[in-house]
Design a protein that fits this description.
two-stranded antiparallel sheet, single chain, Aspartate Aminotransferase, domain 2, 7-stranded mixed sheet, 13 strands, 40% helix, alpha/beta, Aspartate Aminotransferase, domain 1, 13 helices, 2 domains
């Protein structure tokens, strides 16, 4: 069993992926080829955003977003410490300072109630980070931001395809960022990312920034890196888009199967009723995690911890968080455990994972779990 089964996904779309790759090899436009514009149009249409700008990674997307709105040295940006390093890294790459606030226990996303007390005259923006496939509470966050004149930049790296109040992740704030890291529900075969916005001027600025700050050939009007997404990677995402909605449905069926078997016995990171999840990960809470992981590994079941060391406790960033108090983050970091999930995980494998977890955690009523009828 694989934690993320990219092989089965490739097998399901092999002819389309190969055809898309071959088209790029045939026309030879490996940088800014026609697939780049095609993917941008498709992603804008998918989310309902007016503009999409593909870039080299999700981290780069956030850094470009911050640069485009003029955030830099002397500015503070509020974000979550319970996340991949990317948002914090992007803030620092833009020259600003990250300010960490704690998360909600139920979703592990940024707690909107804690934003206002953290705002100072230096605060310029908020980067809420989606986690485990679902967006943050974007309306509550945006409401606080509006009262204080702050910019909200959504980090939707793990939630592309999910919705919040019926709106697509990536189109929930002034700028939405996503990532096409291979393990994400919509991934390429390398690095890639995208920015989404309805603001024409910002879209133009972000397009220029990703091309070394170039407005036109030999005319560089602002600072910017070389941050284009390769044509080949755009072609791969275009191919995967054809099955993306169906794969989301399959992920949700697997999650529903896990829910049916586990929710009476093991604490889960759930999905709020006002939003949907694409289940980038399926995450539970366990005690004595390393022992549980070892038992599962012995049964041939891989697990991953997202994330065992919060950002505010990472050696490179701890000095920035001397005053940060994030007890929920610390508690989650000590107990979260992500189980295998994906559109090609067989129902029999999901049952085996659940039974092995319940056995490892000494949960009771295993017989009742074995009789659960799995969705799909």
């Amino acid at each position: 069993m694989k934690f993320t089964d990219l092989t089965s996904q490739y097998d399901a779309s092999r002819s389309l992926i190969n055809s898309r790759i071959q088209s790029v090899l045939d026309h030879g436009q490996y940088v800014m080829g026609p697939e780049v514009a095609e993917l941008e149009q498709r992603l804008a249409s998918y989310t309902g955003a007016r503009h999409c700008i593909t870039v080299s990674s999700g981290t780069t997307a956030m850094a470009i977003a911050l640069m485009a709105v003029g955030i830099g040295p002397g500015d503070d940006v509020i974000t979550s410490p319970f996340a991949a390093i990317a948002a914090t890294e992007a803030i620092l790459l833009a020259g600003a300072k990250p300010v960490f606030i704690d998360i909600e226990r139920a979703t592990c996303t940024l707690d909107p109630r804690l934003i206002e007390p953290a705002i100072t005259p230096a605060t310029r923006a908020i980067i809420p980070v989606s986690l485990y496939g679902q967006p943050s509470d974007m309306d509550a966050i945006s409401s606080v931001a509006a009262r204080h004149g702050l910019t909200v930049i959504e980090n939707g790296a793990q939630s592309f395809g999910a919705t919040y109040h019926g709106r697509q992740s990536g189109n929930l704030s002034l700028i939405g960022c996503t990532s096409f890291f291979p393990a994400h529900p919509l991934g390429c075969y390398g690095d890639g990312g995208a920015l989404l916005t309805n603001d024409d001027a910002l879209a133009g600025a972000m397009r220029a920034i990703r091309m070394h700050g170039r407005a036109r050939r030999h005319a560089h009007v602002r600072l910017g890196p070389g941050a284009r997404m390769d044509t080949l990677q755009c072609a791969i995402v275009l191919a995967k888009l054809e099955r993306f909605d169906q794969e989301i449905k399959q992920r949700r069926l697997v999650a529903a199967a896990y829910d049916a078997m586990l929710q009476q016995h093991v604490p889960l990171i759930g999905s709020r009723s006002d939003r949907t999840s694409v289940y980038a990960q399926y995450t539970v809470l366990v005690e004595d995690r390393e022992r549980v992981r070892a038992v599962l590994a012995q049964a041939g079941i891989p697990t991953v911890v997202h994330y065992p060391v919060p950002v505010h406790r990472q050696p490179a960033y701890a000095h920035l968080a001397a005053g940060a108090s994030c007890p929920v983050t610390d508690a989650m970091a000590a107990s979260v455990l992500s189980l295998p999930i994906g559109p090609y995980l067989a129902a029999s494998d999901a049952r085996r994972v659940a039974l092995s977890l319940l056995d490892a955690t000494a949960a009771r009523q295993l017989q009742s779990v074995e009789s659960v009828e799995l969705p799909g």
